[in-house]
Amino acid sequence: MSIYVTTPIFYVNDQPHLGHAYTILTADAYSRYKRLSDENVYFQTGTDEHGDKIVQAAEKAGTSPKEYADRISEYFRTTWPQLDIEADNFIRTTDSDHIKTVQKILQKVYDKGDIYLSEYSGHYCKGCERFLTEKELVEGKCPDHLCIPEEIHEENYFFKMSKYQEWLIDHITQHPEFITPERYRNEVLSFLQDPLEDLCISRPVTRLTWGVELPFDRNFVTYVWFDALINYLTGLGYPDQETFGQYWPAAEHIIAKDILKPHAVYWPTMLKAIGLNPYRKLHVHGFWKVGEHKMSKTLGNVARPGEMIDRFGVDPVRYFLLREMSFGLDSSYTPEALIDRYNSDLANDLGNLFSRSLTMVQKFAGGKIPEPGETEPEDRGLSEAARQMLIDYQREIENFNFHKALASVWELIGRGNKYIVHNAPWELAKDPANKERLNTFFYHLLESMRLVSLTLLPFMPGTGKKMLESLGLHADPDNPGQLEWGELAPGTAIKKGEALFPRLDKKDREQTGKGQKREKKKPAASADQGEEGVITFDEFKKCDLRVAEIVIAEKVEKSDRLLKLTVKAPEKRTVVAGIAEHYSPEDLPPGKKVIIVANLQPVKLMGITSEGMILAAREGDRLFLPDIAKEVSAGSKLA
Ligand code: MSP
């Protein structure tokens, strides 16, 4: 079977954050699972680059929309491989083939009479990039962006969405799997109880030029939704490429609840007007908060996937996000919650089972997978539990309950740990007469671990692969039968590697960026980066290095590594620096000068927002702050 898995194309007005990462992670895990089950998957993500929001963000950054879009799109493109995301296509709405496809479709729908020009006045929310109906406003404000929408009167082009309302209601009613989880299907059906308004799809060029020109009227551009949703067709080579024939309408779109209406109402009606079958499924998840708060740049609490990976490693981040959120509901991230899950699930349960088992096979079974003999009820209990796990696991992934799929794997892990304790192989090994019993025991233990490794591949690809290699195996996407009990071949030599998940200690709870060393994939070199590690002068210029004068240096409570520095550069700001093991507050008296990177995204460290980073030289284990001449004043830029 063929499946087309997509994420939303993300706006380039912000860099990738935890919310974006979660969506793409579910898409990646689902695609990997489907590939493992021998299905043909085409997985697409990308960036949405037209519209007011981008123009504003570019203006703020003092650059052109195109340059700005290029830069941020590149962040997305290079962040995803760090998260071990393997997408088949990365689409940009500024790509020329996309623009052509949008224009082709606009012309087609216009010729059919489903697009018309009309006078319009309404409440336009810039955040949503659409007009809101009276009913959607809460106390006159957009409930999502908490702003009063602009009153706009102008001529515009409209898509006759209302024409397809009855068809859409029937389709959703007859296909319960079309929008899931059910709460979102119900939300859409309830919204469709009121008459559907036609969709405004244009902006006059007098107000916005950063869009796709309407092929039948050069005075207008189309923007966000009529532009963005079509990415799902462009990516397959609509209308005549082979990929399109193979993967449409086998599309499964993954989104969060914020863009439910465009995907559940605008998109299927647009497809109907284009003369295409609707997509197969829409999977809708909830929102990630950080602690108790909505993520926001103003609050300075935006969690960035790159930083999380640097601190915890890629697989623990993948595991946490997929294990913690029940798809459809909101969830909350804190580094403490991640560390707790890491220590209990990864280091204790999984890591221990795996390393104990391999050590024992080396010690008591000659380091090879043994031939099993007669089974006992306890062995059959374990194989039965593994079979049950496979059934639960597959059902839960198909239903997008990733957290439950993982919970079922952990049930088997728990069972494996108990199986070891009950059989006490170290006791059996004392008597050579128990050799066959010991072999049967190890075979069952290792076979259940093979299944654990395979089922973890979609969630933690690096870990699953490492585990399989230790068992002398590799995942074979051409052999779906491998997800069954009894495929383990006796005689194969096992290889014990390093611990999978060394425990995180108290120090890792502090965000110093100096956590345990973890393997990290380098992001792909950016377009203007010739060689890896080499940067251009333009890139270097982006770095704002300045002299800052200490106003006061203080210890950070409960931290051995951090100092809170209030500095002038020349404006007052707080910088939290990981130098407390090398400098005490007394070493940094008021007036002392240091060098800071002044234009870093603020981060919260131990509850304090840090607005910059101190530069220091490292010599062995020690850090040294550079000396600055007295004459240099606070705020001077480094030339
Ligand atoms: N460009 C549009 C989508 C067009 S698709 C044809 C857009 N972009 S966005 O950058 O705002 O991304 C929205 C999506 O990002 C959400 O639907 C979700 O996938 C993800 N998330 C953004 N914030 C999120 C959370 N706080 N939590 C979970 N996911 C979130 O809308």
The small molecules bound here are:
5'-O-[(L-methionyl)-sulphamoyl]adenosine
Give the overall average pLDDT: 91
Number of helices: 19
**Sheet having the most strands:** 7 strands, parallel
Helical fraction: 25-40%
Proportion of β residues?
Answer: 15-25%
Report, as a whole number of angstroms, the end-to-end distance: 59 Å
List key phrases describing it.
single chain; 639 residues; alpha/beta; 7-stranded parallel β-sheet; 5-stranded antiparallel β-sheet; binds 5'-O-[(L-methionyl)-sulphamoyl]adenosine
Would you write up a description of this structure?
The protein is 38% helix and 19% strand. Strands 1, 2, 3, 4, 8, 13 and 14 form a seven-stranded parallel beta sheet that branches. It has a five-stranded antiparallel beta sheet with strand order 20-19-18-21-24, with no helix packed on it. The protein has a four-stranded antiparallel beta sheet with strand order 6-5-7-9. It is built from 19 helices and 26 strands. It is flat, with a radius of gyration of 28 Å. It starts with a strand and ends in a 15-residue tail after the last strand. The model is unreliable at 512-533 (pLDDT under 50). The longest helix has 30 residues, at 335-364. With 639 residues, the chain is an alpha/beta fold. It binds 5'-O-[(L-methionyl)-sulphamoyl]adenosine. 5'-O-[(L-methionyl)-sulphamoyl]adenosine binds next to β2, α1 and β13.
